[in-house]
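Protocol step 4 of 6: structure prediction from sequence.
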Amino acid sequence: MFRMDLSRLKSFLQIGLVTSILFTAQSFAEQPDSAFFFIEVLDQQTERGVPMVELRTTSQIRLYTDSNGIAAFYEPGLMGQKVFFYVDSPGYEFGADGFGIRGTTLDTQPGRTATLKIKRQNIAQRLYRITGQGIYRDSVIAGRKVFIQEPLLNGQVCGQDSINNCIYQNKLFWFWGDTTRVGYALGQFSTAGATSELYGQDTLDPDRGINLKYFVDKTGFSKKMFPLPDPGMLWIDGVITVVNDQKQERMLCHFGRHKDLGSVYERGLGVFNDSTQCFEPILRDSQPLMPYMNCGHAAPVVVKGTKYWYFIIPFPATVRMRVKSTWKDATDPNCYEVFTALGQNQTQTASCRWIPFGKLLHDFASRPQAQEALLKERESFCLYDIESGKSVKPHNGSVYWNNWRNKWIMIFHQAGGDKSWLGEVWYAEADTPVGPWAYARKIMTHNQYSFYNPKQHPYFDKDNGRSIYFEGTYTYMFSGDEKQATPRYEYNQIMYRLDLTDLRLRLPETVYELKDKSGNISYLFADAVRRQNRVNEIRRVAFYASSSIRPEEVKSDASIGKTDIQKGTYKNPSDDVLYDWQAEPDIAYYKSRLAQ
């Protein structure tokens, strides 16, 4: 009764591993296999399927749920009987029995489905895997509905590292670093790329998945998007779009050609060639030309009517660089502006301001000396855990405006986390893109596994920013052991959703001390400062308070319980009181493109 044809079993076990599939996902869905027993794992809070849940038998057979939360089980000798499964997933918890064992016994009847519910501990909710092989493998076997066009194998890609993307030519362009393949142990290391339709144009909801259309070579594998003949790995960041003198939109990036993580052959700027569908260098040098070694992710910003790109610089993650959104400025490293106190008299009143890198160079003997000074200036930057008060070093991430919170939001991963070196992800918010960044809340964690380089996707925001989306790279590297690598999920991009109505994300807000022309002192939150047009009256960051208190009620430091942590955030906490209040989100940037 439970015997299955071996050739048929082999075909199912190789789903996603063959390079030519003769049927679509829909045809699979019309032919569910009745020989398998299916396990569906749901988020107890949302009742949505949970990806990447490990189901392990006492004989150490390991299954992992796909992006629908489905796992297909077929094991000769274990079908049609009671089988115990341990249940485990990072950031989720299954109930324990009297012995403290977290798992359950299931009757593995072929064609049947058992549904389990698991409690989410992470604030962020895991949605689906974006890249790699077998994203909906088990759902296809189960005949379940899948939401993407290539649920089993796309561009022959098995794994991809670190996302960079931007809107270009009315599409969303996606770029990754090192990319592994199906057909050989080594992949390609010169940047991979794909496009997807913008949300609003495509019927696919970002809650459900991303339909990626890969740029591929003649073999069908993801092609090199920055194909230089020289040796080394080619990684890009700081991807932006600008309009050139011919009124044409062009896509630019910063690139580095690396020997390894610590050695770089050259750095420079590249432009996307629409004819070859590849990047090509327009500026390159063996010595770094940009103010910082890495350019991070960019956000569109307007300052007094002028459009800029603001960059979050990693290691530690802070917004400290910007450039005008013009071809002339974006292709000249000296035109990139840095937010720094360098180049002034180093007194207690010297404050950070935006200054072109080329102008700052006049105060240094060499470009490397200026770059080293900029790096050193921000090396002590940190935030503070709202729970413990411990300092948190933001390694890398992204900063974007959020309408719902009326704040700039940073999603970042921590360097040196408690449970994982690079696997703990945090949420923080500030009144301007450069700060003041103070408190942070951990929103997800991993045990001895990395989840690094998270990037928010602001063009996917829902309900005026109540729900936001971000992804990151899931891998054992830097935090774990290769023997523990999660099948199919290893070295791939996973999408998460964050509900900003969650009360755990209510962080203390900055309260500013103001002094008017008559010498009167008052204390206001940022929204009141802006509403009353009193930015120039700010004297200092006074303290932090719950945002549930109305700004008009904040009369003095003694009126509420204060937490003075600012001294640990900046070397001179009173120097940056003006921060970057003139920076406004370029909301029209996304609206104009999504509406096309």
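Step 5 (inspection) to follow. The radius of gyration is 25 Å.
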